[in-house]
Amino acid sequence: MTAEDPKPPHRIAGFNTLELAAGLLIFLLGVVVAVESLTYPFGTLRNVGPAIFPMLLGLILAALGLAVVFEGRVSLAVAPQVPWRAVLAICASLGAFALLIDSAGAYVAIFALIFLSGLADRPYRPVTLLCVALALCVFITALVMGFRGIVNIDLLPGA
Amino acid sequence: MDLFDNMMMGFSVAVSWSSLWACFIGVTLGTFIGVLPGVGALAGISLLMPLTFGQSATDAMVMLAGIYYGSIYGGSTAAILLNLPGSVTSAVTCFDGYPMAQKGEAGKALAMTTLASFIGGCFAIVLMMTFAPPLVAVAQSFGSPEYFAMTVLGLLAASTLSQGSPVKGIAMVVVGLLLGLVGTDIQSGVARFTFGSRELLDGISLVVLAMGLFGVSEILINFTSSVFATSRQKVDTSWQAMWPTKREWKDTSGSMARGSVLGSIIGILPGAGAAIAAFIAYSVEKRVSKTPERFGKGAIEGLAAAETANNAAAQAAFIPTMSLGIPGSATMALLLGALLIHGIQPGPLVIQTDPDLFWGLIASFWIGNLMLLVLNLPLIGIWVRMLLIPYHILYPCILFFICLGAYSARNNPIDIFLVIVFGLMGYGMKLLQLPAAPLLLGLVLGPMAEEHFRRALLLSRGDAMVFLTEPISAGLLATAAIIVASTIWSSLRRRKRALADTAA
Questions:
Q1: Where would you find the membrane-spanning parts of this chain (chain A) (predicted)?
Q2: Where does residue B195 fall: left (phi above 0), alpha (psi -120 to 50 degrees), or beta otherwise?
Q3: A45, A74, A103 — which closes off a domain?
């Protein structure tokens, strides 16, 4: 099972860095929201304008951010190793699908998605990925043919 | 009798071909999602939600609900065979299910969980049939101040009772509420937090957010923790090996009864949910048992209690969701979101404006649970084989379905880019240990909360004290204040203890 992580948490001036980051992010978000809501009409208490509710929430959020920072003083949270390769590969595969779907059609987009997403895992398995991509192409063809008019996705470029 | 008439109407809706089909698809996909380790109910529902847009509201709800409770049925399979919970709700199932599998009783354990799930589910449905109408009657007298107070209480309870830091939970609810406000303000027409983007004028799409937050980030999290296991365990799926003996029925009947009651009560409470219900039922069972030392080593009572409780809780969670419009968990929030997408305002009026939806959904629970029984007992062999699908085939397919779902909603590639953004956000939140579920609750309830807040002030002619002078609203807000106070108190105490520990 999961072993106890022996790595001590990183700290800045006694604050757990991870919790400090989380708290400050929340605090900043709250401040940004509160400031941004100043630009909306306030209305009156009887006829509350669009500024009031986000303003209140922003202030509460900022306070909660500070609370997270202070709570985090005793936290033992440790940042896990981020698998950058997987993160990049998966974002790239989704992005490729989004860029290709309108111009190049579903088949091309699927192949781009599957082969790029395969980079996330090691070892790279081109044969398996080819099978997955072909299966999904069959699936989407059936979907578009079967639900003509409901699923409107171009299969081929410029179709 | 009223209830009888209503149920008859419900069944007449639920046995229509389209509803039966929706129910079947829902529970089958749900079991599939539950069986697959690394794909939770939340990710599954967000992925499959676009599938229901073409259906009627009733069929959509029947199907989504089926996915939800189906996934809880299925979650136990991976728990028993791999010691890996397919979903968090079946974490407790591992305690005794896996030891049973190691003793060669995997078939029996799987059959027991299915039967226990069925019994727990049925108990909670009866509870819903009897308790939802009176609850609705109370809620119908509620005005805007009460609604606002109830929403606040529901959100606070849901975010503080879940695991992890309650302060972070509340913070994420607030972030969710704010995300819910993005877009054009209905009352004044002012565009809020759109920062000049036309795409955001309609607000943030629930489907897109959920797919990123639970679909994409879940894959990234799986790559971070990288425990992929596949099962090679042999399972004896003969009827004889699976069906519990008379003695086992006798041993487990008490546990199932307790599990049903506990699970249902916990399921109604916001925030507690199926996972906690299973855990509490298990510890109660251990305390009640004459042989507590057997627990954790393959005690069938422990397994039965946990499984009845988590399914009872899963069904009972629909009580506040459908009768009050207050979801207790992120999954329920997604279902409410689906209702909204179909143009139905969730709340106590649903039972009057859409009685066929309300009672049809309840009737479909009976049918769905029965289908699951049929689907799971004889077909266990197939589900076991599903565990053999390696993750390197699974995740590209999940990514494809995410793209398909996000894109097909309005044929706009921008939505896929938004999924990436929310996926990275969800992953970042996970790294910072910020819970994502409360955020979704906030997103769904945000617009309603603001509307009731404004309307309450309008009707009271700007008297902000209205929330405290109305007795029900004051009571609800007082409960919310108690929750916040106890949270602060317990976190301060924990802090003091931790500081004392480090000093020592």
A1: 20-39, 51-70, 82-115, 127-151
A2: left
A3: A74
